Amino acid sequence: MKRAQSSTFPSCLYLDQEENEFSLPRNVSKKCKPRDGRAYDRTPRGRGGSLTLLLLCAAFLLLGALVAAQSGGKKNLDPASTNYVVLDRNHRTGQERFFCLARGRCRFRIIQCPAQCPQRKPKKNRVVKGCFADCSSRCETVCKFRKPNCNGYGSVCYDPRFVGGDGTMFYFHGAAGGDFALVSDRHLHINAHFIGTRPAGRSRDFTWVQALAVMFESHALVVGARRVAEWNSAEDGLYLQWDGVPVELPSDAEAEWRVTVGGREVAVERTAETNSVRLAVAGLVEMDVKVVPVGEAENRTHGYGIPAGTPSRTWRCSFGSWGG
């Protein structure tokens, strides 16, 4: 994937370097114009476009959530379950703790992981459940296997739908075959590659995110969904590249791949037998990624016009990023 200019996605979605917030600027118009002069609609809370693969991506930027929660004026609806700040662990038991920021009865309360799953991100996550904090009205922590959260802060899901660091939700149609910058920062750049289809009579593409490229320093880690004619959950639909070279991810033992460059560890580990992984670049970003199909019911409901037998894999991804 080529490095997209940050101006390709100039004011639709960005990581503010001052506030470390993943969100939409409030003074942006309803059109975002890349360098080629085409205008792409980003109508908030509307229906977007799509094709046969879709990357669903959710980013939990906790510092951005903190800024949004403390800002004045009218607030957007909290994706409350992920509206928290991670505190130091319980020094006696090692259980992780969270300071809740969501509005409601859980606001400003501290909740702690259960003893059965003391960590959010256990190492052997295919067989060991992780701790999930829910700062909504439930105000609890539970043990679950890790998977993407499309309703958390900074999520990119469906066709594709974005939730910014301040809770603002909007749809971005993009264009089939285009690369768009989701995060642009001095230390980190994340691009999304769109694919799409345009049924007869439509003026724009239905689009999905087919791959993500995480770029830092001179390196690039790419995760994408393969094109397939028929969905089979037992077959792996993921592909990985590191600096342009394909990576074979093991399926046995801990099923992980690691490399250290410039003092940073880059790791990819399976979170299920197939179609689900966690990617991490130490100190910069973590992603939970899952490949799912675009079903026939969804195709009919939204009028995508995808012919029978057309590749139909899509993405779900959650990622959190840190500066430095």
The low-confidence parts are 5-78, 311-315
Report the major sheet. 6 strands, mixed
SSE sequence, one letter per element:
EEEEEHEEEEEEEEEEEEEEEEEEHE
| Strand order across the largest sheet | 5-24-23-22-21-20
Radius of gyration: 19 Å
Strand content: 35-45%
Q: What value does the average pLDDT take?
A: 69
Task: Provide keyphrases for this structure.
transmembrane; about 325 residues; mainly beta; six-stranded antiparallel β-sheet; single chain; globular
Structure in words:
It is a single chain. By secondary structure, the protein is mainly beta. It folds into two domains: 6-59 and 151-321, no CATH class; 80-144, no CATH class. Helix content is 5%, strand content 37%. The protein has two helices and 24 strands. The strands form seven sheets. The protein has a six-stranded mixed beta sheet with strand order 5-24-23-22-21-20, with no helix packed on it. Strands 14-15-16-17-18-19 form a six-stranded antiparallel beta sheet, with no helix packed on it. The two termini are 24 Å apart.
Chart the SSEs and their pairings.
Elements: E1 14-16, E2 21-23, E3 31-32, E4 40-41, E5 57-59, H1 62-70, E6 84-86, E7 97-100, E8 110-112, E9 130-134, E10 140-144, E11 156-157, E12 161-163, E13 169-171, E14 179-184, E15 189-197, E16 206-216, E17 219-225, E18 238-242, E19 245-247, E20 256-261, E21 264-270, E22 276-281, E23 285-293, H2 296-302, E24 313-321
Parallel strand pairs: 5-24
Antiparallel strand pairs: 1-2, 3-4, 6-7, 7-8, 9-10, 11-12, 12-13, 14-15, 15-16, 16-17, 17-18, 18-19, 20-21, 21-22, 22-23, 23-24
